[in-house]
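User
Here is a favour to ask of a fellow structure person. I am asking you to supply a protein in sequence and structure-token form. Please set it down just below, with no commentary around it:

Assistant
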Amino acid sequence: MRSVLFIAVPLATAALISVNRTNAPSDFPRTTIDVGVHVSDIEAAAEFYTNVIGFTEVEGFEVAADFATAAGLTDGQPLAVRVFVLGEGESATRLKLMEVTDVETRTSDNAYVHSQLGFRYLTIFIDDTNEALTRLRARGREPVADGPVLIGEDPAGQYLTVVRDPDGNLIELIGPRR
């Protein structure tokens, strides 16, 4: 089974992700979004997102089958959601991983961003591309294609490194090489 990516907040929030950069009032109490990812192996995904990428696991939660069904999230399946954060506080990015066993799940075509419609990748801004590469390689993972690739022309600038999570989802890491 491979993962299926879905956004765990109303799509209207995702459409308005161009964060309100002024001090004008907002219609949204939080200007970040949470991302939910159904994974084929929760332990492998948790290890990847904590030890390879650098998320921190915080308290997760359970969603009862009747609630998940009434909300339109599942077809009668309960959810045990493990939560991982980048940063602290209410504005921290939250990644919600869940594994639903004993169901038939379609795989996604993750070859390229244009291979399939829908949400295609996560972008994570990092402090040190070299450190991220060390963590990746220590766990037997390599960047996709030629990464890291310099963005722009300044060698002291930002580099893009694309990696895949255990289910093949594309993850962009953007940061300087120190």
Notes: DSSP finds four helices and nine strands in the chain. The CA atoms of residues 39 and 135 lie 21 Å apart. The two ends are 37 Å apart (CA to CA).
